[in-house]
Amino acid sequence: MPARHTTRRATPLARFASLFADPPADYRPMPQWSWNGDMTKQRIREQLRQFAANGCGGLFTHPRPGHITGYLTDRWFALWDYAAREAKRLGMRFHVYDEFMCPGGTAGGTVAATDPTVALHELMLVPLAPGAKHPGNVLLRVRIAGRTPVVVPAEAGEATHAVVCAVPDRRIGGLPVPDLLMPGTAAAFIKTTHERYRASSGRMFGKDVTMMFCDEPMILNSGAGLPFSAYLSKEFHREHGYRLEDAKLFSLCFEQPDSPEVRFDFWRTVNRLFNDNFMKPLHDWCGRNNLLFTGHLMEHEWPSPKSTPDNMSGLRWMHAPGEDLLGFQFIPTALADNGLYLMNLKELSSVTSQLGRKWNMVETCGARGYHTSFSYFKPCEDFTLSFGVNVIDTHLAHESLSGSGKYDWPQTLSDHSPWWQYYRPHADHVARVNAALSQGRECNRTLVLMPTTTAWMHYTGSAFDEPGANVSNRRLELIKRAQIDLVVALYQQQIDFDLGDEFILAEFGSAAKGRLVVGERSYDAVVIPPSMETVNATTLALLDAFARSGGAVYAMRVPERVDARVSDAPCSLAMAAGWRPMADSGSLAAALRAQLPPYVTGPGGAPANPGLVWRRAAGKADVTWFFANPWSGPLDADVRIDGQSALTLDTAAGTISPRGAGRDGGRLALRLTLPPRGHALFLVTDTTAAPVRAQATPALRPVPLAACAAARTKPNMLYIDYCDVEAYGRRLDNVNVTIANKTNWQWQGWSGSPWGKQFRRTVVDAPVDAASEVMVTYRFTVQRLSPSARKSLRACIERPWLYTVELNGRKVAQSTGTRWFDEHMRSFPIGPLAREGANVLRLTARPFRTLCEIMPVYVCGDFSLEAAAAGFEITGATSVTLGDWTRQGMPFYHDRVRYAFEFQLDAPAQSLRARLPGWEGSVAVVNLDNREIGQVMHPPFELAVAGPVRRGRHVLAVDVIGNVKNMMGSHFSQALPLVWSYECAPAAQPAGSAYQFHPTGLMAAPELFACD
Asked: Are residues 150 and 189 in the same domain?
């Protein structure tokens, strides 16, 4: 993706400044756009205009739960091509996402439908009982017996269990999962998906469509067993010279003396087949069609090989390697809490650097819940950017929140979120950091080996783990913990290092003259980590050549095995001059610092603050430095870096200005004072700059504010999430809508909701039974409401055109509905139909259609809510004051409250500074005299108001923007934000006091200062 900024005869700094001020689309966030409803050209245009206006650079587009359009149909490709052309017109990229969400390689179930021979098979352990049937073919019989259970091979009459090869229960779109190790799978996947994109939109490939995203392809995604097939068995025999049968199969599944070598050989074959038969064909197809192969694997499961045997060797086949870092993973508390993700990002940056990839990608931020917004986006994406990631794929932008789509990994970057219109400043920050760092490369000098194949020796599916002992998982956890601790310790000491994969080393590695070369990178030192029990023979030969040519090998362990076979060969390497045994990470860091002084240190060469997140991107004539504090507390650091002068890069304004800096031992001395979520971005050059005159601190004069006047800007709302449901003489009363929906699907003859991943022909176009029915009843109570307030009442319902809608036995006219919140929701005036006391809203569907999902309804209007014995009651509106508005009769309100304060200036002010000492929400918007000045999102929660500001009376208004979490839940669980966190609601509607809300509002009056 070439950058489009070119300025003839401009100086390098001028070109950099132009790029930084207005980064092109390639450096901007590229959300995943979820087509999870019935997409139309109108909605496509509407959302694309929003993406462009809010600073996005492109989209990865794919269907998700609730999808109606029909994946891989002619209509799908026609709309996709229309969206790609419209995105081009708006200056954005439009990329291929090749799946009906993850796992990649299934084409939404179409691959196995096209070629049933590629259906995945799995080794499973099943109990044997007289006369009982078991799935699949029996490959091995075993006996599990004894007070401390022991597994031993057994004859048929003595066996208690069997190892079978069978098709797992899990299905995609009602069809089997394909086996990605089979040579026919990738061909079927490409034929059903990629070739059809090429046929419809191939003219745009390599121009405005430049990437193809494959999401989480897995060799096994059902969990307990091991991948297996006749083809895999044959390839194993061809590669290793022995058969995976009887005793060897027993050693693969259960612990035996030769289990390490059998398992190593097994996963080596699996890894080869995964890469040769799936990753490489996609790489080659993309290369032939001018696309960059991107996506990510199951990197967070390392070192388990269950889904991805070797993450780094898989990433080797991506033109733009990737991973994900989502909201339920990254925790912006402290570096040590995110060791796994630090290591994963190091894997990604290492592959990118070693193979000379220009682009890499991370899927960020989403799946944390509807309360997520800028307070999480910035630390998560700053952390990501600090590892050189330059394709920020923000998760997730839904087309619709109707039906099951609302339960699909919220939040959403769409007009459903009240903060979405203020996304541009964040997008500009991401783009400017990205563009600046992308002008250089990271060149690290130490290589830390990954003990991936050591984990292979110990892994067996959980079904085969020692009964009650969980030995395999515990061994893998020790390997994982040791490697993460090492990576974190080195990073906190500012050691510059990459991670080394043994198979990438075998393909791209060489050693000479004290340097270990891996692709486009060369290293002065190599670290053998403490959990590395085995090395590949190719790795050992490379290390031997490196050490004997003068390279330094820092060994925290002497591996006992080569290719998982016990061997003394590593001990001979320990006799080389470059071999340096290390007792722990502390002594290792000290030795590395002595050999290779870090690029960034604290005073006197000591380590800087260990919580500091940083990246050094070296260009031809300068270096870009990014320092970030994505953590929850403030961070101070005195850093020392090479260079003669520094320029501050302001990511909010897009400007560049000189930065004053001292000198310490010939290096630049910079003092960093970073608030939570803070950052600093510098361009450091070897050109001596004129001294920077210290800026005078302006005198701040407190300006008294009058009492607050506060009000909602939208109607209040009641969320009704409990109902009665009846059909065919059966009835459930007072149940959560998720339970009502699940039960109704069963009453209608389905096993459950089919809207997770489906074919249009089996769900949307399913035959309609004219005699089918469902009736859903919602109840709400009105108390002490004035006539004018009652007149304001409106009922907001999803897909009301599928029902007869009645309130208190009287029909609600469909013609009175207007669009509300979502394109599939309508708002109806119900004031004349509502009454004091109990009200009954009934939806009747005759016949039942598959779009009749039972979902919450809302009542909106000018009222307050009071917690009752069951839920909430509608009462007369009360005034809004400072404090949490969820405790002021607006617990479900998600939009905006304006807090206005009058003040008087007795003399003109050069400028003003507003500070918010206490507030909760997504974003606070500051207005002066009804003119929007800017937004407050991050500490120290201050905003400068440019002047001059005239003398006289003014109004300062702060609009606090809420979140969809309070409006849509889940209100009873803080678990992963999928449908099960809603289904765990109490069996009957609890008291309103039992609902959980995210505090929102202006908690304290703002502070205003005049700058003279």
From this structure: yes
Helix H or strand E segment including 432: helix 424-437
Question: Are 316 and 365 in a shared domain?
Answer: yes
- In this prediction, residues 784-800 reach a mean pLDDT of 97
Q: Which residue has the tokens 């990629």?
A: 194
Nearest Cα to Cα of residue 763 among 755, 771, 772? 755
Minimal CA–CA distance to 28: which of 394, 379, 395, 418?
394
Provide the angle, in degrees to the nearest 10, between the axes of the packed helices 424-437 and 374-385: 10
The CB-side HSE value for 926 (13 A sphere, CA atoms) comes to 22
Residue 828 included in any domain: yes
Q: CA 379, CA 395: separation in Å to the nearest integer?
A: 15
**Rounded Cα gap, residues 35 and 23, in angstroms:** 28
Kindly report which listed range (56-60, 748-752, 869-873) carries the lowest average pLDDT score.
748-752
Per-residue pLDDT averaged across 453-481, rounded? 87
Average pLDDT over residues 493-520: 98
pLDDT at position 144 is: 86
Q: Residue 622 pairs with which residues in a beta bridge?
A: 685
From residue 606, alpha-carbon distances to 585, 672, 971, 989 in Å are: 16, 16, 48, 59
By three-state DSSP, how is residue 490 classified? helix
Residue 354 tokens read as 């070693």
Confidence grade of residue 933 (pLDDT, cut at 50, 70, 90): very high
pLDDT at 148 over 70: no
Residues 345 and 278 in one domain: yes
Which range marks the domain in which residue 450 is found? 446-595
Instruction: Please report, as a single letter, which amino acid is at residue 366.
Output: G
pLDDT range class, residue 761, cuts 50, 70, 90: low
Show Cβ contacts of residue 695 under 8 Å, excluding neighbours closer than 6 positions.
none
Beta strands in 178-219 (DSSP E): 211-215
CA distance 376 to 417: 15
pTM: 0.96
Q: State the total domains in the chain.
A: 5
